[in-house]
Design brief:
The structure holds two protein chains of two kinds. By secondary structure, chain A is of the alpha+beta class. Helices cover 20% and strands 30% of the residues of chain A. Chain A folds into two domains: 1-30; 31-124, OB fold (Dihydrolipoamide Acetyltransferase, E2P) (Beta Barrel). Chain A has two helices and seven strands. The longest helix of chain A is centred in the N-terminal third of the chain and has 27 residues, at 3-29. Mean pLDDT of chain A is 72; it is low at 122-153. By secondary structure, chain B is of the alpha+beta class. Chain B has four domains: 1-167; 175-420, no CATH class; 426-524 and 634-686, no CATH class; 527-629. In chain B, 61% of the residues lie in helices and 12% in strands. Chain B contains 21 helices and 13 strands. The longest helix of chain B has 32 residues, at 356-387. Classes of the chains: A alpha+beta, B alpha+beta.
Chain lengths: 153, 689
């Protein structure tokens, strides 16, 4: 076997190994993004996938109960009851009316069990003056808005 | 001032367009005068954009809240250094910074080479001006920072307004790194435009020989160095500000900055294949092209929120502009390649699997695989929405599964590659060169296992780190021994002399050593510990060898924020060791609360304490403590990488030795020697690095 074909075989082994690893990592961590409206139309296996849902925290619904925090996310008039069961403290920006992104899965009783919650305080940019952008872009590595970093991931 | 700024930006755009048009016509008609005038226009862009930047800074420093951008990102009580940094706190200013840094690079490239490479430089000037034209178009028409604010009076007539106070800088950005991290990263992003311009120019102009490679390599190293610093500063910012005890989360924007760094690294290695063996020419050209396109893609991801829009967030129309620009760049690159592909024919073939060449090939293969995996994972939400209609994102497990083995394999190559000879290495040479380093590595692995490292990847990483360090040390030692035996100087003096004779090679080794330190720092991750507890005054919390005693909670305030502060005394093995003051700052203008982490850093481990606020259940203050081993090595490794790169940029000191003419005989000679390091100095000085 000449050097070139040896190299190709070696490369092939590496690439296949990496593809296998990528596949395993992908199935472990793939997360579907759904809107609250879409959730009610999901059926079968689609309901048991890991997913992310975003919405606004409905004012007055945050209940802190020992090991979990319950609240209701709302988007376009649809509500989603959420239980946060993660062990990291909720971000400072998580409060009534905040924009939140929850990651976890649907429970059979139509509650959403969230392992991670990211939140952004929506109030700051609501009253933007004429001609200003409504978003909060940031430089460099921080452009995920002012979402607090998810922990423990 | 806003008019002056806008005018300067407009003139800069005109100058850039002129540089493109006049430059192209100058090349086609071979009129030197026109080419010269295009070059001067290209240099003038820098002066004009500088004026615009100065104007915007003037607004920040005079608290003039008549510009929307200043209102959004500053307030009176903001400390001066953050006012300065507010320039790049948002979309418009960041793009202005991009343009400014790019025009700075362009200025220096055109100025330093004004008397050199008369065949190549006109093309370089046109490419640089072309990229500038795109960014200046954005600055002028899409995201202008000089937008004034207006309000309607009672009659409904709009008039200019000036607010009394701004909305303040995002508290997350009020951290020293923010003053330096974005410029560093952007110096990296923009810097890769220079090698791109040279590569495209050489291809378009069919510039003879490998000379462009030499010029490009230095500029790539500069950009690469800034990019490395930018990435590490960003990681340190995430570590110190976000309060989650980590420094890298595979966030799309982090990934975006990593991508061009990976391909840039690949290029810096594979470029040697072209210099020494005339191989991989097509590959190199495309690596440079890809690196530049990834820089543009990175800016697109950072600025447009295409991927963050998975979070239904920060959407902006600017993405389309970047996509179109990327498409144009790709078409131009591909057309230039296709037309001139015969110019890139390879001179040599791969001779053996155990050779320097193949180690570079594997290095490139694996770096490209990493780049592809990161790119794929980052863009997957967008791709899956196109293909399947549902947004699917992948998380850190995906990135880690693929990239950790890749990183370890790269680490192995870092140790093995430099000791392999070009063309072919014999088994005896392998044994001679690697027996000791490998033994040392395995010994370190055993010690680490006894010390509590159980994670397989972390153990492999430590073994390889020691192995690589020993190979690097042996390279320095063997080279220095030859010198000192020849002129009788002290071994340490010889190390210095050796390094200065071939700065590129030995600077490269130091960069490798810096990367090893970074790897060791990352290998500490599996031993991370954390604990959260509600603490009253007088309560304690135990983590590792530390006991944290809560002494007091108080409040401090200044014009910018009010702060809740915890006073914690830390005992180590029963003895009082230090005081830590984690805070929660409430920023008055923006009404946002941010945590300020208290970190006690030592080479062995960081004690990282977050004051998580009052617990909603007990009403008592809650403290979250992390014990993070070896993190400091990452930052220290970063410094070593920078020093190594700077060293590699210094020109070689001339040696008194007369170079032996390189013949086919000397290649076989080095095979017989089997180790380049054992070969005579003279052939080494001209040899590989």
């Amino acid at each position: 076997m000449n050097a070139r074909s040896k190299f190709l075989v070696g490369s092939g082994i590496i690439v296949i190994t990496l593809l296998a690893l990528a596949y395993v990592g992908f199935t472990q961590s793939k997360t579907y993004y759904h809107t609250i409206t879409e959730l009610s139309t999901l059926q079968g296996s689609a309901l048991h996938q890991r997913m992310r849902v975003s919405g606004n925290v409905r004012s007055g619904t945050i209940e802190r109960l020992g090991d979990r925090v319950n609240f209701v996310l709302t988007e376009q008039g649809k509500d989603l009851p959420v239980s946060y069961v993660g062990r990291d403290p909720l971000p400072d920006t998580f409060k009534d009316g905040a924009q939140a992104l929850v990651e976890g899965k649907m429970l059979p009783d139509n509650r959403f069990e969230a392992e991670q919650v990211q939140a952004k305080c929506a109030s700051k940019y609501e009253a933007a003056p004429v001609g200003t952008p409504a978003t909060a872009p940031q430089p460099g590595q921080t452009s995920t808005g002012s979402y607090a970093r998810p922990s423990g991931s | 001032m806003d008019i002056l700024g806008s005018l300067a930006l407009l003139l800069a755009l005109l100058a850039a367009v002129y540089a493109v048009v006049a430059g192209t016509v100058g090349i086609l008609t071979r009129r030197t005068l026109l080419t010269k005038s295009a070059r001067n226009a290209g240099m003038a862009v820098f002066a004009l954009v500088t004026v615009a930047v100065a104007c915007l800074e003037y607004f920040f420093f005079t608290n003039d809240f008549s510009l929307a951008y200043v209102v959004e990102h500053s307030n009176r009580a903001l400390p001066p250094y953050y006012k300065f940094a507010s320039l790049w706190a948002g979309q418009e200013g960041s793009l202005l910074l991009w343009t400014w840094l790019l025009s700075g690079y362009a200025f220096f490239v055109l100025f330093l080479n004004r008397k050199r490479h008369p065949e190549l430089m006109p093309y370089v000037g046109v490419v640089l001006a072309g990229v500038q034209t795109f960014f200046l178009t954005l600055n002028n028409f899409v995201a202008t920072p000089f937008q004034v604010i207006a309000s309607a009076n009672s009659a409904g007539v709009m008039h200019l307004a000036r607010l009394a106070e701004g909305r303040g800088l995002n508290p997350l950005l009020q951290y020293p790194e923010m003053v330096i991290h974005p410029p560093m990263l952007y110096l990296g992003y923009t810097g890769f435009t220079v090698p791109f311009a040279f590569a495209l120019a050489a291809l378009l102009g069919r510039y003879p020989g490998e000379k462009w490679i030499h010029i490009t390599r230095r500029w790539t190293m500069i950009a690469w160095c800034f990019q490395s610093v930018g990435i590490l500063l960003g990681a340190h910012w995430a570590y110190a500000v976000l309060g989650w005890g980590g420094y890298w989360a595979w966030d799309p924007v982090e990934n975006a900055s990593l991508l061009p760094w990976i391909t840039g690294t690949a290029f810096l290695h594979s470029v040697m294949m072209q210099e020494k063996r005339g191989m991989m020419k097509v590959w190199n050209v495309w690596l440079v092209f890809t690196t530049f396109m990834l820089c543009i893609l990175g800016t697109l991801l950072t600025r447009s929120g295409v991927v963050s829009s998975v979070h239904a967030f920060a959407q902006s129309s600017i993405g389309t502009w970047f996509v179109v620009f990327l498409a144009i760049v790709f078409v131009v690159c591909f057309a230039a390649y296709w037309k001139n592909r015969d110019y890139l024919r390879s001179d040599n073939q791969l001779d053996s699997l155990v050779s320097r060449e193949s180690s570079f090939l594997f290095n490139n293969l694996i770096l490209l695989a990493a780049c592809f995996a990161v790119l794929w994972g980052t863009l997957f939400p967008v791709l899956s929405e196109w293909v399947q209609g549902s947004k699917i994102s992948v998380g850190p497990p995906f990135f880690n599964k693929v990239n950790v083995p890749i990183a370890l394999f790269l680490l192995l190559l870092t140790g093995v590659g430099p000791l392999l000879a070009w063309r072919k290495t014999s088994f005896d040479a392998l044994k001679r060169n690697f027996a000791w380093p490998l033994g040392g590595g395995l010994l370190a692995g055993v010690i680490a296992f006894i010390l509590g490292f159980r994670d397989v990847y972390a153990l492999v990483c430590l073994i390889l780190s020691v192995f690589v360090t020993l190979t690097i040390a042996s390279e320095f030692y063997r080279g220095a021994r030859v010198i000192s035996s020849r002129d009788g100087s002290h071994l340490l003096t010889s190390v210095g002399a050796l390094t200065m004779r071939n700065t590129r090679r030995y600077g490269g080794y130091i960069v490798h050593f810096g990367m090893v330190l970074v790897f060791i720092g990352i290998a500490g991750t599996p031993l991370n510990k954390d604990i959260q507890k509600d603490l009253g005054i007088g309560d304690t919390l135990k983590i590792g060898p530390y006991t944290i005693l809560c002494q007091n909670f108080d409040q401090v305030a200044n014009g910018n924020y009010q702060s809740d502060r915890a006073t914690l005394e830390v005992f180590k093995n029963g003895k009082s060791d230090m005081m830590l003051y984690p805070e929660r700052r409430f920023f008055l203008t923006s009404q946002i609360t941010e945590t300020m982490v208290a970190v006690q850093s030592s080479p062995l481990r960081d004690l990282y304490v977050v004051y998580a606020g009052r617990s909603p259940e007990s009403g008592r203050p809650s403290v979250h403590a992390y014990l993070l081993p070896l993190v400091k090595w990452i930052w220290f490794g970063g410094i070593v990488v920078v020093l190594g790169t700077i060293l590699a940029l210094i020109p070689n000191r001339r040696t008194a030795l007369v170079l032996r003419p390189v013949t086919e005989r000397s290649w076989t000679g080095s095979i017989a020697d089997a180790s380049p390091a054992m070969g005579p100095i003279a052939s080494r000085a001209e040899g590989h690095d």
